[in-house]
Design goal:
Elements (H helix, E strand, L loop, with lengths): L3 H7 L4 H29 L1 H21 L3 H30 L4 H30 L3 H20 L11 E3 L4 E2 L23 E2 L3 E3 L9
């Protein structure tokens, strides 16, 4: 969206009016992050992502061919809400599909690819503008990418439970009282440890079940 300000100026907005578009995107983005979290808790992650991507595709195509002042303000508000909502859901859907084991690495890779897109995209859009003198081609290309992303989001599914080896469990508190003196083995299959008179909470990655044995 680095070109939205010069595009707005070329379409007849003043520099001050065009600059306020970025402010509007930032403010509406706050609401988008909050709303997407609240709504996804009730509807699920995928419906929110599909809605955000679809809305982004529609307004991007709209701004390519309708460039009056009112359209720019509507675009900025909708873009801020939907893009922020989509980014917020990326963490949740990555966890849903790949699990917690490598979530940090996977999300880091997503952010790297996102950064590459933000670096190359504006440069490419500027290059196209220098050749053609218009931004419509760039907006149409972005719209096509958003449509493809929507289709992929609809198709993609998390792995079935029978193919999920590792599961995260939060154990109930274990109390080691006077009748249960001693330490308990803690390994990949024995994750609860304790000593007399203490409560222990220990989240573990386990396979199928968690046998607990007394030494």
């Amino acid at each position: 969206m680095m070109h939205i300000v010069p595009y707005a100026v070329d379409s007849g907005m003043t520099s001050v009016q065009a600059a306020t578009l970025l402010t509007l995107i930032g403010i509406s983005g706050i609401g988008g992050r909050l709303l997407s979290g609240l709504i996804s808790d009730k509807t699920g992650i995928k419906p929110v992502m599909v809605f955000c991507l679809t809305a982004l595709a529609v307004i991007t195509l709209w701004i390519a061919f309708s460039n009056d002042t009112r359209t720019f303000y509507i675009f900025a508000a909708v873009y801020g809400i939907t893009y922020s909502g989509f980014v917020t859901m990326m963490v949740r859907i990555a966890r849903q599909i790949f699990g917690m084991k490598s979530l940090g690495s996977i999300f880091g890779a997503l952010m790297v690819s996102d950064g590459i897109g933000f670096g190359v995209g504006p440069w490419l859009a500027g290059y196209i503008f220098d050749i053609t003198g218009e931004y419509q081609i760039s907006f149409i290309a972005v719209t096509a990418g958003l449509i493809a992303a929507t289709a992929i989001t609809i198709i993609i599914k998390p792995p079935s439970k029978k193919h999920t080896r590792w599961k995260m469990h939060q154990h109930r508190p274990y109390y080691a009282g006077p009748a249960h003196l001693g330490l308990y083995r803690a390994s990949s299959n024995h994750c609860v440890s304790g000593a007399a008179g203490f409560y222990f909470f220990k989240p573990c990655l386990i396979y199928h079940e968690l046998p607990i044995k007394r030494l």
